[in-house]
Amino acid sequence: MIREYCKIFAAEARVNENFGFSLEVIPRYLIHRPANSVPYATVEADLTGDFGKYCTIDLKGKLFSQNNSELEQKCCTFQHWIHQWTHGNLLVTQLEGVETKITNVKVVTKSKGYQGLTECGSPEVFDQFVTHHQCNYYCGLLGLWALKTDLQQPAKMKGSRSPLLNRKLGSNSPQLQRKGHSPQMSRKANNSPKIARKTQETEDSNSVRNQKSAESLSVPELR
C-alpha cells in the first residue's frame, strides 16, 4: 500500500521541475513454499550500497528523522505528504534504504482498522510528529500545509469567556446586562395599565389643585 502512495507522491513531484529525483519503495513479493515449515515468505530485491536509516521510531515511541541531505529532506516531505493525504490518519514511522530505493517501511494509523491496517499508533506519536516536523524546501514545492499553523496564531485569553470572570468584571456580566435591560421590567414600566391609571389620576388631581389656587387668588376682597 505504501508503495502505491509513493507512486502518487512521485507523480506529483514530477510535475514540478525543481523537485528533482523522487523516492521509490521497492516491491515486496509473497511466495509459497509448501515443503517448508513456514509455507509463506516475502522476498524483495537485494540492495547494494550504503544502507541508511532516514527516519525511525524507538521502543518508547519517539520519532527520529534526519533532515540534512536532499534525500533525507525528501523522506521528511514524504512523511508530511502522506499525513496530509490521509487527513492525519496515517503516519510513516520508518524509512530505510539505499539512496532513493526505500524499504522496510513501517506505518501507524490513528484508528485501528484504517484501510485494513492493524498497527494503531498512540495519539502522542501523531502529536509528536505535528510538533517536531520542520517543513523544508520540498514541502513548499508540493504546496503542503504547515502543520503548526494553530501554534503560530496568537493565543487568546482563556478567561475572556469564563462566567466567573464576567461576573467579577461587573459591567460586562451577561447576567447584569440582562437584569439591567430585562424585557419584563421594560414591559412592566411602560405597558402596565395600573401604573398608567395612577399616573393619570395624579396628573388630574394636580391640575384641579392648580385651578383652585388660581381662582382663590383672582377673587377680590370684599370690604
Automatic annotation (TrEMBL):
The keyword RNA-binding does not apply. The keyword Nucleotide-binding does not apply. InterPro entries: a-kinase_dom, Kinase-like_dom_sf. Residues 1-147 form the Alpha-type protein kinase domain. It comes from the Eukaryota. Keywords: Disulfide bond, Immunoglobulin domain, Kinase, Serine/threonine-protein kinase, Transferase. Pfam families: Alpha_kinase. Residues 183-193, 205-216 have a biased composition (Polar residues). SUPFAM superfamilies: Protein kinase-like (PK-like). This is Alpha-type protein kinase domain-containing protein. PROSITE patterns: ALPHA_KINASE. Residues 157-223 are annotated as: Disordered.
